[in-house]
Write a sequence for this structure.
C-alpha cells in the first residue's frame, strides 16, 4: 500500500509516547485542514473523490476551473459527463471519475433534494465514495473524528509504531484505539501532513522531524550522519515550523 517497506512493531504502543507524539504535532499544526480547495459539502465530496490516486495539487488545478462553472449537483449534471471530462482530464482515472461524479450528482438531486447527505451510510452509497472518502469528508466538516487511512497515514502509523496491521481498515481501528480522544479529530491531518512533508516514503527528512526521538524507526530511517548527530529539539522545531501547513495546496 505504501510503495515502500514499513516496519512492524509490537502493539499497542506506550500511551505516554503516543500522547507526546500528538502533543508535539499539535504545536506546529494547531489547526490542520485538508489541502483540497472546496466551497461546501458537495464540492468537498467531488474534490475528495477526484483525489483518489492523484495529488491534491493536481486536483486543485482542475477543480479551480471546474467549480467556477459547476459547483452544485444541478450544474454538474447539466455539464454532463462529456462536458466534465475536459476539466479533469489531467487527473488519473478521469473517465471513470467523470462517470462517478455525474452519477453521484444525479443521486444527490433525485434522492436528497439537491442537498449533499452527511451521514456515513448515505455518503458511502454514492458512486466513487468509499469509506476513505467518506471519512475525509466527515472529518473535514467536523461531523465525525474519522481517520482516513491513505498511503501517508499507513506508512507513518507503522513507522511510529502506532499501528502494525496489514490493511487500512485494521490500521484505522488500531489508531482509534490508541490515539488520545482529545487528539482524534485532527489526528488524520497530522499524520497525512507529517507523511507528506517530513516522513516521506523514500527519503524521510529525519533531521527536520519534531518527533525524531519518539520514533522507533529512527535508526533504520535516518542516514548514519543524521542518526549520529541526533539533531536537537530546537533545530527540529524550527524545521517543522517551516513545513507547509493546512491551507497550502495538497492528498
Amino acid at each position: 500500500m505504501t510503495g515502500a517497506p514499513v516496519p512492524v512493531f509490537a502493539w499497542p504502543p506506550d500511551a505516554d509516547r503516543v500522547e507526546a507524539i500528538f502533543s508535539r504535532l499539535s504545536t506546529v499544526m494547531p489547526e490542520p485542514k485538508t489541502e483540497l480547495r472546496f466551497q461546501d459539502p458537495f464540492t468537498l465530496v467531488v474534490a475528495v473523490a477526484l483525489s483518489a490516486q492523484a495529488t491534491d495539487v493536481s486536483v486543485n488545478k482542475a477543480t479551480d476551473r471546474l467549480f467556477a462553472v459547476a459547483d452544485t449537483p444541478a450544474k454538474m449534471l447539466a455539464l454532463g459527463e462529456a462536458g466534465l471530462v475536459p476539466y479533469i482530464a489531467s487527473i488519473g482515472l478521469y473517465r471513470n471519475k467523470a462517470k462517478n461524479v455525474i452519477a453521484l450528482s444525479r443521486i444527490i438531486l433525485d434522492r436528497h433534494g439537491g442537498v449533499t447527505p452527511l451521514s456515513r451510510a448515505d455518503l458511502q452509497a454514492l458512486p466513487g465514495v468509499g469509506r476513505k472518502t467518506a471519512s475525509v469528508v466527515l472529518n473535514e466538516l467536523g461531523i465525525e473524528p474519522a481517520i482516513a487511512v491513505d498511503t501517508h497515514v499507513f506508512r507513518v502509523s507503522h513507522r511510529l509504531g502506532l499501528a502494525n496491521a496489514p490493511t487500512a481498515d485494521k490500521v484505522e481501528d488500531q489508531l482509534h484505539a490508541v490515539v488520545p480522544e482529545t487528539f482524534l479529530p485532527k489526528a488524520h491531518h497530522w499524520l497525512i501532513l507529517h507523511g507528506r512533508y517530513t516522513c516521506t516514503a523514500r527519503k524521510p527528512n529525519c533531521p527536520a522531524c519534531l518527533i525524531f526521538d519518539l520514533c522507533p524507526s529512527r535508526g533504520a530511517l535516518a542516514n548514519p550522519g543524521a542518526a549520529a548527530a541526533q539533531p536537537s529539539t530546537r533545530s527540529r522545531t524550527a524545521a517543522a515550523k517551516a513545513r507547509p501547513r493546512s491551507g497550502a495546496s495538497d492528498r
Summary: The chain has 13 helices and no strands. The mean pLDDT is 89. The longest helix spans residues 94-112. The radius of gyration is 19 Å.
